[in-house]
Amino acid sequence: MKILVIGGSGQVGSKLREITNSSEFSFYYPDSCDLDLSCEKKITTFYESIRPDLVVNLGAYTKVDLAEDRKETTYNINYLGVKFLCEITNKNKIGLIHFSTDYVFGNEGAPFSPQDKKSPLNHYGATKSLGEDVIIRNHNNYLIIRLASVFGELGNNFIKTMFSLINDKKDVKIVGDQNISLTYAGDVANLILFICKYYNQYKNLNIFNDNVMHFTNKGFTNWYEVSKLIHNEISLRKANATLAKMISISYKDWPSKALRSKDSRLNVNFDLLEKIGIQIPSWDNRVKKVVDFLLIERRNKDHE
Q: Which helix (H) or strand (E) holds 145?
């Protein structure tokens, strides 16, 4: 089976590459030059060159604040590109796994279930919501998976940023009153491979008895609690280290061009996932894993 992965250079895509090098399937990871999501011609040309059996779309414009200034770019990638993908995959009767975000929801109703009403607060969330809608209306074999606050060892994310700030600054201000879910990129990669195996056997994406699902690690938290955990993990492993002082602030006091929800927690059906053999660790378990990796990485750089 040939699987086209769009957005394969991101956090999830990079972890997926690690576990699919020896896979029974053929995975294709075009870069944005070969397959530009904002260009219908490039999508069509690359698609026709490999004729995949399944498409996994991890691609998106995800710079939430910049999206407020780059509205056309964000719209072209997060909506029009998804529309093009939807049309070509549905026309050729193949499955489409599309990844979305907790940003499609607003301030009321958390923790959100997959079928809850959407009310995005910013342009990024609005374009991701439009991308979902065009698939739901026009595709016959799809699965939309919403993630929240993705992090991992690779790429740019809050955990890596906070790790650097705690090690290198005197004071760090962190929002303490925003309720969030967290998602480890490696767990998403494992989920994708599991779904690919299911699709290869059954040729449909009805694995979760619905076409829209939420996927995060277990437990809810806030950015300040996450930062405290990172701080504690560094303290345990770096004796007598001088680390930044942690200062909790309100989300209202954090400068941001884009509006963000005060509570974006996602409700995940962990019971169903575990019934089909997918075990999901807690968010703190995975944050510790990433911090361990970053500590080793920094130690090795210091010794070069």
A: strand 142-147
Q: Residues 199, 57, 197, CA angle at the centre, nearest 5°?
A: 20
For residues 167 and 196, give the distance between their C-alpha atoms in angstroms, rounded to a whole number: 40
User: Distance (Å, rounded) from C-alpha 100 to C-alpha 148?
Assistant: 9
Please give the pLDDT value at position 5: 98
pLDDT for 32: 87
Residue 128, classified by CB atoms within 10 Å of its CB into exposed (0-12), middle (13-18) or buried (19+), is buried
DSSP H helices in 57-119 = 64-67, 71-75, 81-91
φ and ψ of 30, to 5 deg: -70, 145
H or E segment and range at residue 13: helix 11-20
What percentage of residues in the chain have a pLDDT greater than 70? 99
Can you read off the two tokens belonging to residue 195? Answer: 């779904």
Which CATH number applies to 2-156+182-214: 3.65.10.10, 3.40.640.10, 3.40.50.720, 3.90.226.10?
3.40.50.720
286 class by beta-carbon count within 10 Å (0-12 exposed, 13-18 middle, 19+ buried): buried
CB distance 212 to 144 below 8 Å: yes
Question: What stretches in the chain show pLDDT beneath 50?
Answer: none
State yes or no: cis peptide before 30, omega within 30 of 0: no
Q: Rounded to a whole number, what is the largest CA-CA distance in the chain?
A: 62
CA–CA dist 274, 207 (Å, integer): 13
DSSP 37-67: TT-HHHHHHHHHHH--SEEEE------HHHH
Side by side, which strands form the sheet with 54-57?
26-28, 2-6, 54-57, 95-101, 142-147, 212-214
The structural domains of the chain, with segments of one domain joined by +, span: 2-156+182-214
